[in-house]
Structures are given as structure tokens and as C-alpha cells.
Amino acid sequence: VLWDSDLDSLLAISELSSALFETISECFLKCVSGHCTAGRPMTSGGDAAF
Length: 50
Known about the structure:
- By secondary structure, the chain is mainly alpha-helical.
- The protein has a domain at 1-28.
- It contains one helix and no strands.
- The protein has one helix at residues 2-33.
- The chain starts with a helix and ends in a 17-residue tail after the last helix.
């Protein structure tokens, strides 16, 4: 039972971290491409707000 709950939390953490990683990489790529302005808020769609 303990193993199952640990596995569930591990899966939840991995999903969360992968989603976070995707968001960070998108912003990083946009900043590198010159499409991201530092200090500007992000829209709900994940695109940089111009």
C-alpha cells in the first residue's frame, strides 16, 4: 500500500516537473529568439505578452 502511494506521488511529481520544464523551455527559447521581453507577464496560453 505504501509503495502504491509513493508511486502515485512520484508520477504526479514527474508530470508536474515535465509541464514546468516545458513552460520554462518555451520561455527560454522565446527569450533567445528575441521574442521575450524581460519582466513582462506571461499569458495563460504560455506565449510572451508583448
